[in-house]
Structures are given as C-alpha cells and as structure tokens.
Amino acid sequence: MKISGINKYYKETGVHACNEVYLSTEPGNILALVGENGAGKSTLMNILCGSVSADSGRISVNDRNVKSGSPESSSLAGIGMIHQHPEGAGPLSVLENIVLGYEPRRFKIFTFLKKAELEILSIQKDFRLYLDLHKNCSELNSAQVQRMELLHLLYRKKDILIFDEPTASLSDNQIEELITIISRLKNEGKTILFISHKLNEVFRIADEIAVMRKGKLILQKPIHKLTPAITAQEMIGRAEDVNYPKRNHDRDLRKAPIIYSIENLSYRKSDSEFLSNINLHIHQGEILGIAGIRENGLEILENIISGMTHPQKGKLIFNDMDVSGESPAGLRIRGISYVPADRLNRGVSADSTIADNLILLNYKRMHKMGILAPASINKWAETMQNTYNIDGLPQQQIKHLSGGNIQKVILSRELRENPDLIIICEPSWGLDFSSRNQLHIELDQTAKRGTAILLISSDIDEILALSDRISVLYDGKINITEAKSEMNRKSIGEYMLGIRSER
Amino acid sequence: MISKTIIFMVPLLIAALGGLFTELAGVLNIALEGMILSGAYAAVIATELSGSLTVGIIAGMSASMLIALLFAFTSLHLKGNIFVTGLAINLLVPSLTAMFSKSLFGTRGVIRLEETLGIHNALFSLLLLLSFTLLAVIVLKYTAFGLHVKAAGINSAFLASRAIKPIKVQTIAIVISGAACGLAGALISLRLGVYIPGISAGKGWIALVAIYLGNKKPVPILIACFLFALAETFSDTAQGLIEIPATVILSFPYFITILGLVLYSIFRKK
Amino acid sequence: MKRTNRLFGHMAGTIITLVAVLIISIIFLLLFSSDKSESIYYFFAGPFLNSLSIGNMLSSFTLLVFSGLAITVAFKADVFNLGGEGQIYSGAIAATAVLVYLPGLNSFSGFILASLAAAAAGGMMAGISGVLKNRWNVDELISSFLLSNAVIHIIDYLITGPLWDKESYLLTTRTIDIRFQLLSFLRPSNLNSSIFGALIAVGLITFIFFFTKQGYELRICGMNREFAHYGGLNTAFYVTAPLVLSGALLGLAGSSAVMGIHHATIKGFYSGIGWNGIAVALIAGTNPLAVIPSAFIFAYLNQASETAMLKADFPFELGSLIQAIVFLLISSKIISDKANGIFALFPKKKGGIVD
C-alpha cells in the first residue's frame, strides 16, 4: 500500500490536517503511526477509508489506484478500519452485528445465519479470536466490541487493517491480548496500521514507526533505528515554534495559603475515560498547569472541577469548604469562575447576541425590580467591549465573531466577577498568535492580583509558558507534580506519553 | 363478546404491526391515524366505482402508501421535524377526503356502499390476527430487511458504516406502515360499508400506544391490542352496565401510556 | 425519537413556505371550483366584504393569537407543548364551572376568577409535562399530547354527563349569565372584547421576554441549555415555567371563547384552535410580536376559504389543507438551507465585522 502526496486543508478551522503526506507499507508488516492530538493521524486514516476525501494526492493498493473519498473503493481495495470507540447495534446478537449489511441469504430475502456462523467460527479458529456469537452486543465490554469489529473485517476478507488507538479503551490485560492477536494477524500476512500515542506499546508491537506532527509526516523508520526518547522528541517537536510573552516567576507561592484542593478524586466514565485517586492543590495567586491527553481524563477532570459532573469518590475543597456536590451556580457564588474548552457550545450561546452573552453573570446585579432594560444591557456590553477590545456591535450574534474575540467575551465576563479561582481549559484552541499572547498576558496579570488559575491544557508549550507548577495526567492518574523550573518540554512529553513516571 | 373483541382488533393490530416497523426503524410515526383514514376512504371510493371489494382493498392500501411516501419525503428527505410532518399528514388526509367527496359525489361526508365486506366471523378474524403477527415475526426475525430495520433504529450510524443507507430502510419501513394502515382502514370502512369522516376514531394513536405497551415486540403488541379492543367493546356494548362511563374509558389508553413512559424512563435510568 | 434543536428561525424558509401555500391554494381554487374567477375573487376579497366576515375573521384571529402566543412561549424556551387542545378545553370548562356554579359573583369578579381558573387549569396541565420532563426525563412533546387527549375525553364526559344542560339539544354545558358575557362587536359576528386581551397578552409576553430578568433567563435557556447551566441559571425551572405559562395562555384562549363567543363550553369547540396555534407559532418563529401577523394570515386564510366555499361554491375548506402544507414544509432543514442560498444571492446590508 502506498500513500503519496496527500493534502487536506479544512477551510472552516484553517487547519492543514495533512500536508504532503507520503507513506508506504507491505503485507505482514505492522506500521505504527504516532503523533500528538491534532497531528493529523485521524484525518489521514479517514482519507484512507474513504470517509474523508483528500484535496490532492493518491492512494494505491497493489499498484491499483483507490478512489479518494469513496468508502466503496477503499473497501474494495481491502482496507478496513477499527475505530477508536467501536460501536455496535446494542440489542442485536454478536453474530448479527458481524454480518450486518453482508448477510448470506437464502431465497434472496431470508438471512442464512447458520452459514455465516460456520464461516465466522472457522475464522475464529484460524486467528484464535474467541467471542460468543449468540450474546447480545450490549453485554460486551469495549475489548469485545473491538474484537467483534475485527471479526467483521476478517469476515469480509480485509487485508489492510487500521487500528485507530485500539488500546485507548482497554485495560492492561486486554492490551496484552490485543497485542497477541495483532501479531497473529501479522503472521497471517495482513498489513497492519496501528495508530497510537502510547509509545511503550508501539515499541513492543511495531515493525516500523511513522511520526506525524502538525499535518506533516516527520519520519518513517524501522523500529530498531529509533528509541522511545527520540520518537517522543520528534512527536512533540524540538524548538519552540512561537515566542510566548515572558512571565515573572520570581514569586514564591509555596507559603501562600492553599485556596483549592482535590482529595482522592476518582471517577469512572468508561474503561478509557477515568480518573483514579487524584490529589492536587493550588495556592493563592498561583497558576497550576495540568497537562495530559484530552480523551484520557483531562475532559472529565474539567467537567468535575467545574461542577458540570459530580465526583464518584473524593472531595473538592474550596476555601476549607467541601464543594463536591455543588452545581456551577453554587461554585460561581463561592467565587470560582470557569472558561470551558468547548467555547462554542458551553462558553457562549452562539445564536444569542454579544450583549446577551456578556451579561450572563452580571445581569442579576443590573435589573431594577426584575426589569432588565435593553438600553442598560447595551451600555454594559459596550463598556466591556471597550475595556477588553472586543469587536462587533452589542446586538450582533456572537457566532459571527472570530475565535479570539469569542474567547475575550468569555474571559472578560469571568474576570469581571473577581473570582478567587479560575478554571481555564484549552484557552488557546483556535486562536491566532496575537490573540493567544494577549490572553497569556491577561492571565499573568490576573494571577498577579492574587487569583488562583487552574490551567487545563493538552498543549505542552502553553503549560510551560504559563504555569508556576505543572501536573501531568496519564492513565487517569497524576503522574507527577513539580515546579515549572524542574520541567521542560521533553520531560513533560515523556510523562504525558507514559514513558516516564514518578509514581 | 370475545368474538366481537376479536373482530374489532383486526384493523388495530394490522396498523400496530405496520407501525412497529417504523418504530423499530427509529421513525416516530404519528401519521398512522391519517394513513388509516386515507385507506378507509380510498377503499370505499374504489369499491363504489368498481363494484369490487378486492379493488377497494388494493386502492385503500395504495392510497395509504402514497401518503406514506409523502410523509417519508418531507420528514426524511427534506429533513423536516418528524412530529410536525406527522401532524401534517393527519391534517392533510381529512381535508383531501372532504375535497374529493365534494367534487366526486357532491357530499362533504358520508359515503354508503351497497355491499359490505363480510368479516363477521371471529374464527376467520382470529386466523387473520395470528397470521399477521406471524408474518411480522418472520420478517423481523428471519429476513435481512428485518435486521436492517432494527439496526436503523438502534444505531443508524453503525448501519451506515456497513454501506446501507438508513434513510432508504426507513423509507421502506414507512411505506410498509402505510400499506398496513391502508389495509386496516379498508377493513374498517368496508366492514361497515360506509365512510364517515373521522371513521379512524383514534385507531392510529391507539396503535402507537399499543406498540409502546407491547414493548415493540409483535406478540405483546397482539396482547395490548386485545386489551384495547376489549375496552372498545366494553364501551360499545356495556354502556350503563358498568360504573365507569364509556367516554372516560377512552381516556385510559392515554393515561396508561403516560404511566408506561414514566416507568420506562425510571427503569432505563437504573 | 431525537429532537432537532432548531425547528425554524430562518426567515427565508418561512417565506418560501408561505409562497408555496399561496400557490397551492390558488391551484386548488382553479382546479376545483366551478366558477374560477368568482372563487378567486371571494378568496382574496371575501373576508373584507361585510362586517360579518370581518368580525368572524377577527374573532378567530383573537383565539389564534392566544394559542399561537402560547406555543411561541414554549418554543422560545426550546420546549414543546402539543397539549393545546386539552389545555384550551380545560380552561374553558374551568371558566364555565366558575361562572355557572360559583354564587355571588359580579361581572368583574366573575371575569377575574374565571380567567384565573382557566389559566390555572391550562397551566397545571402543561406544568405536569414539565415536571415529568425534569423528574424522569419523559419527553414533554409526547406527554403533553397524551395528557391532553386523556383530559379531552374526561371533559367530554363532564359535558355530556354531570354538567350537561338538559334544556339544550346541543352537547353543551349550561350557559353563563349574561352579566359575564364579554362585549360583542360587529354583531352578529363572533367578535368580542377579548381581542384586546389577546393583544395585551402579546405586549405582556414581549415585555417579559425582552425587558425582564426572567425573560433573559428564559431566552438563554431556550438558546443553549448547557450554556445556561454553565452560567448558573436554573435550567430545570425554565422547562416547567414556560410550559405553565404556555398552558395558562391556552387556558385563557378557552375562557375567552366561553365568555366571548359560545357563552358555554360546547363539546369539541377547541378543534382548529389547538393545532392552528402551532402553525401560527411555527410561522412566527419564536418572536412574540410576529404572532400578530402570523395569526392574522391564518385567520384570513380560514375566513377566505370559508367565504369562497359559501359564495362561490368552492368545494371544501382550504384552511386545514393550508395548515397541513405549512406543517409539511416549515420544519424542513433542506428547504430552509436552499432558501437561504437563494436569498444570499441578493446583496445584503453589511453589518460590521466578519472575520
């Protein structure tokens, strides 16, 4: 299989997801594709499967061209993918799920499940992939659903198997089993593409490694020519890409009072998304950066700290008060502000006006006996817009603003409440450099005024540029918490990818 | 009285089984009522014009399937809100029938036939009930189409990933429900030998309720339909004999459904 | 049973729908009437030809403003109220019961008490759906509809049973005393002073929406519930409260019909007001002020088809057909997208920033 010169540019977001990507592999080979969040791995794989069409470039299998953007063509070429979170049709049986859409028939209309069963049983024997075919799909755990999808691909005689972060939702034992299965598939002559950001697994299983960063293929090399440390460095990138404004780090905050702490927090959403036994604290005026991979716990952490979800175990303490059960409303009254990562759905009401978005926290103080005059709303909005340099007219819908302006709306609204603690998540997503630098200066000044800032981000550069102390989340646990001076890009990256651990 | 109940429940069950296909395919089909009415109407008109009951039944089914296609087109292909378009069908059919009556027969309402469909035999009705239930079971359980319908309702994205267009499966399901409702309507009007505006009398809604009460499975739906038909027979024959007035009995299916919905969501939470 | 968040909100789609309605109406007129020019004439001019039809048009306008406004309130908060018919009916029966059976009321206290009772009856019915939604996540769209149908049968029973007026040959309750009857205009049409009530209600709802704290909270909850929750608003309250308000307005539609038109609760009188209210609200697109022209369009179309039917032997009522066409097309995403595409071809006023 060969991929040559693939390009994909998303106009809406301005992201160059694939930039002149070349890749090739052969039967009986396991190629691991690694890269950070948003490096373009998933886009590339979706192009391979035909669910996304490339702007340019070509894909060929056995020297035959595969039409871009056509799932049928990819499927015909024998390409099959197992998605990161494979799904099935719950109440149907495993067997029905496997054959769905490709049922053997009797008299044209009746399904011939017995025949399918025999076929699948022989596949199961060949690959030693055992799964009860008569169970309901809804009773399966995620490893078994994955196996079901694998059986489906084998049933359809696919030769090129793409695994998109297959271990992301598995426990350690299940990962071991999967690795055995994959090596068996390899021995049977299947071509395997393995996408992951967990380097330790990659080095156990792959024959070859390809690294992607920011839409570009950085390298493709056999495994013995690489080490985990080198690979990690290639994934994250060596040099600072942009200059961040310098912060003053000369404040000693270790003696400042602790304003907020998390004690023994555990939460389990699924096998892949969980937190276990998180302990953190933050001092007044401090910026604590929490780095990690978004899907592996960072997002739940955001939801729990902000009161959108409640912890299953453990406590959240704010100013010596247990706030574990508080809703966002309760947290706001106590002085916690929150800037969500999902700005367009949670941070603003996209179809409402700029003014309506700006007064969300303040309107309770603006009304006179319940009357909220549009004139006073507009006046407030204009003041805010002037102070924080926000574009647009108060009565325009906020969705027409740029990402940077929307972030300013949210941040100004939150800062105006003079909170004791701000939770701010992925603040520079979708911002251009100048808006981002402006935001960083704003946050730095806020911290200087004594507000504690909890920065949750999957961007290592951002964490390094802003934080006083840094915690790294890996596998649902805090891998390390250390002063910023003790950390660098390389070490954070290694903790984030699970190569190093302080536990 | 049982035999009367069984005769009453034939159209109800056929409509409910038709609606079952749409329900399983993930389409909220509140247009059952309008489809039944269109079937009842077209059956009477066609019988009147041709003199043949068979032609009447076929016409009833075809008319209802046309209406079903309109429903599928506006809700699935034009992506309208399924509830709003369903309401539209239920409003459209009575006004269309009134229009045709007026221009064809000069009346706005009742159309009488000389002959009636002779389904007064409980045994034959029972046979019909069982064979339709069996048919639904077979199609849903043993055919590829049945499998696709279920998959479309459970996880349409998953079905789409297997190169089958959910919208196509859902359209076919809607047309099937149209055919069933058309048949149900034809049976109602031809048995009485008359078309009266509003002859469907909420049967479509009750059929929908029966689908929910029957937990979307053919045999329990059969039982649910029996219960409703029994209530109908009661209110039809036993007026004055029981304490509860007949019109109040008519409100029971709705209360029961609300209760069912509440219990269902409590159960689902756990 | 997934719900789409936005049903409408695109002016362009609405205009296309209305144009389609008009074209289809004219086609039907041309196809089915014996004297084509006459029925076209009566269709367009009929409602304005004499005081009777003007009065009746404005009377149905009154009821449509109440019911359309009620549904708009629910839509504004992104909740559904499909129990209109039952809520109108229960409002009517509550008002009738107060006026017929409560002794010692003068015309003012009777009016106030009857209106309150009607609003409470309708509001409570809709409110139950809100509670079910908050407590057990039962879809209010379905529960309000089912509850309404259940209650309709019970009220039918009340009218034909305990509350039946034995002296009347109609299925109706006893008539309310003349001192409770609202002022009539343009007799013998149905027009009465409740038209002012309806207009006041529009003003009041507009005021609440755009000039009060609660109105702001309701709008935000209707736009984006997650955002509202994030901002610390009580999102559960804004499921129940808009439903109660919506039901109360529908209850008032019922009581205004009782006090202004029928002077009793007649069995099945609600038909045509409940569902029409939804059509009115769909055209108005969550803007309470737009309810007035929207209700007027429907009142006009109803009256037009009625005069065309009476005067020009036009074969049927276009009213329900029009309603059906509106329902078929108005919520279509494809049509509104396409319509937006068409309208985008015309130059627009530039409105400041676009990045």
Characterise this structure:
The complex is a heterotrimer of chains A (503), B (270) and C (355). With 503 residues, chain A is of the alpha/beta class. Chain A is 34% helix and 25% strand. In chain A, the strands form five sheets. A six-stranded mixed beta sheet of chain A has the order 6-9-10-3-11-12, with helices on both faces. Chain A has a six-stranded mixed beta sheet with strand order 18-19-20-15-21-22, sandwiched between helices. In chain A, helix 8 packs across helix 18 (489-496) and helix 15 (403-415) runs parallel beside helix 16 (433-448). Chain B is mainly alpha-helical and 270 residues long. The N and C termini of chain B lie far apart (41 Å). Chain C is mainly α and 355 residues long. In chain C, helix 1 crosses helix 14 (333-344), helix 3 packs across helix 11 (274-284) and helix 7 packs across helix 8 (213-223). Chain C is globular, with a radius of gyration of 21 Å. Chains B and C meet through helix 3, helix 4 and helix 12 of B and helix 6, helix 11, helix 13 and helix 14 of C.
Strand order of the largest sheet of chain B: 1-2
User: Helical percent range of chain A?
Assistant: 25-40%
- Euclidean distance between termini CA atoms of chain B: 41 Å
Q: What is the residue-averaged pLDDT of chain B?
A: 85
DSSP, total strands of chain A: 22
Structural key phrases:
heterotrimer; A: 503 residues; alpha/beta; 6-stranded mixed β-sheet; 18 helices; globular; C: 355 residues; mainly alpha; 69% helix; disordered N terminus; disordered C terminus
Layout of secondary structure:
The complex is a heterotrimer of chains A (503), B (270) and C (355).
Chain A: E1 2-10, E2 15-24, E3 30-34, H1 41-49, E4 56-61, E5 64-66, H2 71-76, E6 79-82, H3 94-99, E7 105-106, E8 110-111, H4 113-127, H5 142-155, E9 160-164, H6 172-187, E10 191-196, H7 199-205, E11 208-213, E12 216-222, H8 228-236, E13 258-268, E14 274-283, E15 287-291, H9 298-305, E16 313-318, E17 321-322, H10 328-334, E18 336-339, H11 343-347, H12 354-358, H13 363-366, H14 374-388, H15 403-415, E19 421-425, H16 433-448, E20 452-457, H17 460-466, E21 469-474, E22 477-483, H18 489-496
Parallel strand pairs in A: 3-10, 3-11, 6-9, 9-10, 15-20, 15-21, 18-19, 19-20
Antiparallel strand pairs in A: 1-2, 1-4, 4-5, 7-8, 11-12, 13-14, 13-16, 16-17, 21-22
Helix pairs in contact in A: 8-18, 15-16
Chain B: H1 2-24, H2 32-50, H3 53-77, H4 82-105, E1 111-112, H5 122-142, H6 144-154, H7 156-161, H8 166-192, E2 194-195, H9 203-213, H10 218-237, H11 246-249, H12 252-269
Helix pairs in contact in B: 1-5, 1-6, 1-8, 1-9, 1-10, 2-3, 2-4, 2-8, 2-9, 3-4, 3-8, 5-6, 6-8, 9-10, 9-12
Chain C: H1 11-32, H2 36-45, H3 51-76, H4 84-101, H5 107-136, H6 140-160, H7 194-211, H8 213-223, H9 225-230, H10 237-262, H11 274-284, H12 291-311, H13 318-330, H14 333-344
